[in-house]
Amino acid sequence: MHFLRADQPSLNGIWPMAAEASLHRYRSHTCGALRSADIGSDVRLSGWVNRVRDHGGVLFIDLRDHYGLTQVVVDPDSPAFKIAETLRSEWVVKIDGRVRQRPEGTLNADLGTGDVEVYAAAIEVLSEARDLPVPVFGEPDYPEDLRLTYRFLDLRRETLHAIIMKRLAITRSIRARMHDAGFNEFPTPILTASSPEGARDFLVPSRIHAGKFYALPQAPQQYKQLLMMAGFDRYFQIAPCFRDEDPRADRLPGEFYQLDVEMSFVEQEDVFQTMEPVITEVFKEFADGHPVTEGWPRIPYDTAIQKYGSDKPDLRNPIEMADVTEHFRGSGFKVFAQMIERDPKVRVWAVPAKGGGSRAFCDRMNGWAQKQGQPGLGYIFWRAEEGAAGAGPIAKNIGAERAEAIQTQMGLATGDACFFAAGDPAKFYKFAGLARDEIGRELKLVDENRFALCWIVDFPFYEWNEEEKKIDFSHNPFSMPQGGLAALEAAEKEGPEALLRLKAHQYDMVCNGYEIASGGIRNHRPDAMVKAFGIAGLPPETVESRFGALYRAFQYGAPPHGGMAAGIERIVMLLTGCKTVRDVALFPMNQQANDLLMGAPAEVSNKQLRELHIRVTAETKG
Q1: Residue 466 CB-density burial (10 A; 0-12 exposed, 13-18 middle, 19+ buried)
Q2: What is the widest separation between alpha-carbon atoms in the chain?
Q3: Which of 158-162, 280-284, 484-488, 540-544 has the lowest mean pLDDT?
Q4: CA 165: distance to chain centroid?
Q5: Strands 184-185, 234-243: pairing kind
Q6: Phi, psi of 189 (to 5 degrees)
Q7: CA angle 456-459-465, nearest 5°?
Q8: Which H/E stretch holds residue 434?
């Protein structure tokens, strides 16, 4: 008997046959392989019983495996009929039979094997299945926790199975394109040292070194930079990353994968010119014909915040906000006018709503704003009765001339509306961005059938940490400030406001409202590195101890370098149309960061704790 090795490929779905006439123990073909050319052949199939249908005493078994589905027919004349009557969904069976043409009128054009069926001569039950806790057939709306507990069943569903296979195809495409672009794939360590990279570390206690801990890498950031110090020039990796942070719809709890990239002797534009074609072509390959942006716009961070209320704008939404403060200065709308007079930071932003010019829609948006914890959302709408003077309380208070000026500035017409947010933009821009998103959805302005990609550039280097009352890094602490060491020293002399105005060589890749990658040109100068961290409150000795390898490497000839990291799950989520990244992961945790399938996290034995020199104490409440 000839047995199939795990590494032995099939040819057109036909599995290797024995040198003699006998069939392979389990299958001669997969359940997706048979075609009209196989009619008259004796075959052996193995798989799961997808369902059994009884048509007037003749049984039809849909047999399923990883490759597809084949219809098997068993009538009362078949020696396999008695056992076929006992079959239930998800039993695993082996079926021997002869391929024949499906009768006229029963062909299934949606199925690869839809022209043929197998008349069963023998059936062997390889494994029975208990009643299923979650159905496999169809797309049932079952609780997520139940689906995750029985994820191995959930993964049998056709849609989810296809999503996981599409994920593998996407990562294969990424790998091939990165190799074609001259990158080499380097693996980096999983056990490493704790490092402040914006999230909490997962810590691993050392048995050998009592009281000390390894950390799982939040990202291979320092390792990939060290590879540039080592002279490897172009690195990439589909890297596992571990962060102990709260779950979100666009972020897996615990662990995720990213396309990690680093390049030597590059400026920001070199990274864009290299990576933009890679990601564009991947999207085009898997976009199912939907348009994909080519020649991505580069949008400065400050512009993105002012126009879209977000540093990850959904550019499928055509709405662009604008500053209309001067139209309200000294106006009869005292709420805004007095705010502007009292505080120079106050601005008024307008959110245009083409097609939203009805009181019913404006009232609905006002109610939406109140649900967001806001007092309301001011508006003007234009209808034929009032002309350019507009309607609504704000229009009445500012007068026809100012209302018409707003209409002209925002490019609005009869049948349109405009909404307003006022205050310190640093405090209200997120709400304004949410209003833009909501208006776009409500008025169906968003083009759902395309992928809109862009770069967000010129991020602030520092931000103010209100909790600790100090200057802190805004994005990646390893990025180079624009202007380098000289800019840091000049801003430090000038004071906190100047430091907060500093921009970084930092950029994000955004698609349809999601940040799918982040990167930067690195701070490769040890003096600039020490200065940058010093301003953020870390003295030189702390920098040397916490980033010792990187700091030492910078002393021995560091090439200018930069790169990025793109989230694999987010890219796959977008390309498959899924709502959360949990839908594109094989074995994800739930929203409470519990692995319901394996029962993790879990308690461990006292013996294990003693070996690790750890004692668990109950947390005191109150």
Answers
A1: exposed
A2: 96
A3: 540-544
A4: 17
A5: parallel
A6: -65, 150
A7: 135
A8: helix 425-442
- CB-CB contact of 257 with 238 (8 Å): yes
The pLDDT value given to residue 197: 56
SS3 323: strand
- DSSP H helical ranges for 555-622: 568-576, 606-611
**Half-sphere exposure at residue 169, Cβ-oriented, CA atoms within 13 angstroms:** 13
Rounded CA gap, 418 and 402, in Å? Answer: 13
Q: Is the CA virtual torsion 526, 530, 536, 542 positive or negative?
A: positive
- Residue 288 confidence (pLDDT) above 80: yes
Position 196 scores a pLDDT of 59
407 pLDDT above the threshold of 90? yes
Give the per-residue pLDDT at 20.
36
Instruction: Give the HSE-up count for residue 26: Cα atoms under 13 Å, Cβ half-sphere.
Output: 15
Query: What is the C-alpha separation between 597 and 137, in angstroms, rounded?
Result: 21
Overall residue count recorded for the chain in this entry: 622
Between CA 336 and CA 328 the distance in angstroms is 7
- Asked if 99 and 29 touch (Cβ cutoff 8 Å), the reply is no
Give Cα separations from 13 to 33, 156, 344 (angstroms).
5, 20, 71
- 140, 127 contact by CB (below 8 A): no
Average confidence score pLDDT of the chain: 92
Share of the chain above pLDDT 90, in %: 83
Judge whether 429 and 309 are in contact, CB under 8 Å.
yes
β-sheet with 347-353: strand ranges across:
322-323, 347-353, 417-423, 378-381
Q: Rounded CA gap, 302 and 340, in Å?
A: 21
Query: 113: Cβ–Cβ under 8 A, 6 or more apart, which residues?
Result: 31, 32, 33, 34, 35, 68, 69, 70, 71
Q: Which residues, 6+ apart, have CB-to-CB distance to 515 below 8 Å?
A: 311, 312, 508, 509, 567, 570
Q: Which residue has the tokens 């057109």?
A: 12
Q: Which two tokens stand for residue 290?
A: 């939907």
- Say what the pLDDT of residue 77 is: 93
Report the alpha-carbon distance of residue 531 to residue 462 in Å, rounded. 13
Which of 41-50, 73-82, 470-479 is predicted least confidently?
Answer: 470-479
For residue 406, give the nearest of 353, 464, 475, 442 by alpha carbon: 353
Range scoring the smallest mean pLDDT among 64-78, 392-406, 471-485: 471-485
The mean pLDDT of 52-81, rounded to a whole number, is 95
